[in-house]
């Protein structure tokens, strides 16, 4: 039991903490690169500016955790619980967040370039100004999420739920989107859609081709 322990600035690279209970701990600026943190209880932990590069956090509970400016590039967060977490300004490039719960999380200004968010729950998440370039958001739930000024260029949104999502000023250049979401985007936002790709019933087509077929 390591609840509320103070390990700020500690160096625990490659440490094995699988299933440890660290709820409420102070882990500011800790170095846990390549550490085994599977199924660890990290509820309400302060991990601001922590280094967690390539750490294994599969199934970890990070509900309400402070991960501001944390370095999580290449980390495995598959099925992790990050509900209500603060990841503002964090680096999650090339990380695996597939099936993760990020509902209500603050990811504003974070970098998620090439990140796997397939099937992730991002309902009501704050993604303002977030860099999601080339991210895999297939089957992700983005309903009521704020994506204002987010970079979604070359991201894949096939099967994603965009109901109620706020996308004003978002960059959708080269983004792959379901045909079912086009009308919503056209009717609700002043977006540049000419460079998107659309998943039709037969294949993936350009926006221009989509409208040519419609007429």
Strand proportion, as a percent range, falls in 5-15%
> What oligomeric assembly is this protein in?
single chain
User: What is the helix tally?
Assistant: 2
Averaged pLDDT: 96
Briefly note the structural class of the backbone.
Answer: little secondary structure
Low-confidence stretches: none
Largest sheet: 4 strands, mixed
Give an overview of the whole structure.
- The chain is largely without helices or strands and 215 residues long.
- Helices cover 8% and strands 5% of the residues.
- It has helices spanning 179-188, 207-214; strands at residues 156-157, 176-178, 197-199, 204-206.
- Strands 1-2-3-4 form a 4-stranded mixed beta sheet.
- Helix 1 links the parallel strand 2 and strand 3 (197-199).
- The protein starts with 155 loop residues before the first strand and ends with a helix.
List keywords for this structure.
elongated, single chain, 215 residues, little secondary structure, 4 strands, four-stranded mixed β-sheet
List the topology elements:
Layout: E1 156-157, E2 176-178, H1 179-188, E3 197-199, E4 204-206, H2 207-214
Parallel strand pairs: 1-2, 2-3
Antiparallel strand pairs: 3-4
